[in-house]
From TrEMBL:
Catalyzes the epimerization of the C3' and C5'positions of dTDP-6-deoxy-D-xylo-4-hexulose, forming dTDP-6-deoxy-L-lyxo-4-hexulose. The gene is rfbC. One of its GO terms (molecular function) is dTDP-4-dehydrorhamnose 3,5-epimerase activity. This is dTDP-4-dehydrorhamnose 3,5-epimerase. GO terms for biological process: dTDP-rhamnose biosynthetic process; polysaccharide biosynthetic process. It catalyses: dTDP-4-dehydro-6-deoxy-alpha-D-glucose = dTDP-4-dehydro-beta-L-rhamnose. The keyword Isomerase applies. Homodimer. The keyword Isomerase applies. Pfam families: dTDP_sugar_isom. The active site is at H62 (proton acceptor), Y131 (proton donor). The record marks Y137 as: Participates in a stacking interaction with the thymidine ring of dTDP-4-oxo-6-deoxyglucose. Belongs to the dTDP-4-dehydrorhamnose 3,5-epimerase family.
Length: 181
C-alpha cells in the first residue's frame, strides 16, 4: 500500500498493492499494521458501512459533532467522486475541500480524519461504497452541511440536478453549522 498526499495534509489517498493475473485480482483492502506503517496513523475501526446508490445520487456532507468519525472510504462497484471538507475552525485548511475519484477499477481508498465532513456523488450507473469508521454512528450528533454551499464551492462533477435525501436537502450552510474548534 502506498499513501498519496492531497492538498489537505490530513487527508490521504491510499493505493493498495494489487496482484492481477488471468484469474482476476487480489489485494488487502485493510491491514492495521500496514495502515499504521504507511500513514503513521493509529486508529481502531469499530464499524463498517455499505451503501448502494444510482447515478447522480449525492450523499453528504455528513459528520458527527460529538463522537466524530474518521473514515476509510472505498468504492467496490462503479465510480464515485468522494469529498472531504475540513470543518475544524482552528485548522489552517478550514473550509477547504479535497475531491478524489474512487472506483472499483482504481481500488483507491480515501482516509478522512475526524473533524471533516464527508460526501460523495455517484458517477456510474450504480456504485457501492464501503467505509470503516473510528466511532459508532450517533444519530443525535449527526449533522449535514449543504452540498452546494457557495462558501465551499465544491466542484461536483454532476449531470444535472443531484438526487438528494430529505436530510441532505435540509443541510445547513457552513457559516450556520455546528463545527469543531
Amino acid at each position: 500500500m502506498k499513501a498519496i498526499p492531497t492538498a489537505i495534509p490530513d487527508v490521504l489517498i491510499l493505493e493498495p498493492r494489487v496482484f492481477e493475473d488471468e484469474r482476476g485480482f487480489f489485494y488487502e483492502a485493510y491491514n492495521a499494521r500496514t495502515f499504521e506503517a504507511v500513514t503513521g496513523i493509529v486508529r481502531t475501526f469499530v464499524q463498517d458501512n455499505h451503501s448502494r446508490s444510482v447515478r447522480n445520487v449525492l450523499r453528504g456532507l455528513h459528520y458527527q459533532i460529538k463522537h466524530p468519525q474518521g473514515k476509510l472510504v472505498r468504492c467496490t462497484v462503479g465510480r464515485i467522486f468522494d469529498v472531504a471538507v475540513d470543518i475544524r475552525r482552528s485548522s489552517p485548511t478550514f473550509g477547504k475541500w479535497v475531491g478524489v475519484e474512487l472506483s472499483a477499477d482504481n481500488k483507491r481508498q480515501l482516509w478522512i480524519p475526524e473533524g471533516f465532513a464527508h460526501g460523495f456523488v455517484v458517477l456510474s450507473d450504480v456504485a457501492e461504497v464501503q467505509y470503516k469508521t473510528t466511532d459508532y454512528y450517533a444519530p443525535e450528533w449527526d449533522r449535514t452541511i449543504r452540498w452546494d454551499d457557495p462558501d465551499l464551492a465544491i466542484e461536483w462533477p454532476l449531470e444535472g440536478e443531484p438526487i438528494l435525501s430529505p436530510k441532505d436537502r435540509a443541510g445547513k450552510w457552513l457559516r450556520e453549522a455546528d463545527l469543531f474548534d
